[in-house]
Amino acid sequence: MGSQTYLARFVGGPLDGRWETFSGSSGSPLPTVTHVHLHNGPKILHHYDLRYTAEQGWEYRLRPVP
Fold first, then answer.
1. What pTM did the predictor assign?
2. Is the Cα dihedral 12, 14, 18, 24 positive or negative?
3. Quick one: which of 22, 27, 62, 63 has the fewest CB in 10 Å?
4. 6 and 22 in contact (C-beta within 8 Å)?
5. Range of 50's domain?
């Protein structure tokens, strides 16, 4: 089975507006991406959850902080 290529846009947080192209050997992209932000201080984690909409296509949307 071949791998499929995906294009996803990041929405919110420090990666807002960036695009990610990736291939998934299982035929699906990662459901969650974690971004580690280091800026002369404590480590800050941002979690992006994948979703698909007919209007926007694939998006990694910033997970709200609980």
1. 0.77
2. negative
3. 27
4. yes
5. 4-62
